[in-house]
Write a structure and sequence with these properties.
Radius of gyration: 19 Å
Distance between the termini: 57 Å
Helix content: 25-40%
Strand content: 25-35%
CATH superfamily of the largest domain: Tetrapyrrole methylase, C-terminal domain
Strand order of the largest sheet: 3-2-4-1-5
CATH topology of the largest domain: Methyltransferase, Cobalt-precorrin-4 Transmethylase, Domain 2
CATH class of the largest domain: Alpha Beta
Largest sheet: 5 strands, parallel
Length: 242
């Protein structure tokens, strides 16, 4: 059967990809993805053929990948992070239904995990992942999810915290969180995870409210037990130690 891999490439460098992801890319004749992501992979596989589409043409990109696989090519559709976390795995599986295409989803390292490793151990206990992008989800629903996660004292990883059109969304999110979490709640930000210029900051929730971030930043909100330790962010799991 014709093969279509849906691959999470993590932050993008070879060292952040799983062995399975690298093998699937090697096996593929055609690599499809958003240009930013294909540019990360091209140095590793310069001999491959590539198809790209601009941002906001995700469904067209998925359709191109499914059609190419149905024609007999071994295709890789790539996403940053994990293909099943705000990635292309869902649309690909829907579009491939009923076609002579075998879809194989290959896991990748999502920003909550790779960014969490940079910060230390912010997600050692229960946590939620919430995107602040309202392109596909109404802001009212995002507000409810923030409120529910904060009231349950979850640690929270926030994706897509800000953009030119959504410059105040992180501030609005922090205002919701501050209804349930103290202003001194330990938080963190990581920018350019696994890429040139990677940086991180540990700060309080109140400080975070007044911090400007961008789409290359992942934000981490601690729970009531999270603390700063040695300049890193640590959420205790409850293990006893001296």
């Amino acid at each position: 059967m014709n093969k279509l891999y849906v691959i999470g490439i993590g932050p993008g460098g070879q060292e952040y990809m799983t062995f399975e992801a690298m093998q699937a890319l090697k096996d593929s004749d055609l690599i499809v993805g958003y240009g930013v992501y294909t540019d990360l992979v091209k140095p590793l596989f310069p001999e491959k053929k590539y198809l790209t589409t601009p941002m906001k043409q995700e469904i067209e990109r998925c359709r191109m990948a499914v059609d190419a696989a149905a024609e007999g090519r071994t295709v890789a559709m790539i996403s940053s992070g994990d293909a099943g976390v705000y990635g292309m795995a869902g649309p690909i599986l829907e579009l491939a239904e009923g076609k002579d295409v075998e879809v194989k989803v290959v896991a990748g390292v999502t920003a909550a995990l790779s960014g969490g490793a940079v910060l230390g151990a912010p997600l050692t206990h229960d946590f939620a992942v919430i995107s602040l992008s309202d392109l596909l989800t109404p802001w009212e629903k995002i507000e409810k999810r923030l409120d529910a996660a904060a009231s349950a004292d979850f640690c929270i990883a926030i994706y897509n915290p800000s953009s030119h059109k959504r410059a105040d969304y992180l501030q609005k999110a922090c205002d919701i969180l501050l209804q349930h979490k103290g202003p001194d709640t330990v938080c963190g930000t990581v920018r350019n995870i696994g890429r040139e210029g990677e940086s991180f900051t540990v700060l309080t929730l109140q400080e975070l409210r007044n911090t400007q971030v961008d789409m290359f930043t992942t934000v981490f909100i601690g729970n009531s037990q999270t603390k700063a330790a040695g300049g890193r962010m640590v959420t205790p799991r409850g293990y006893k130690h001296d």
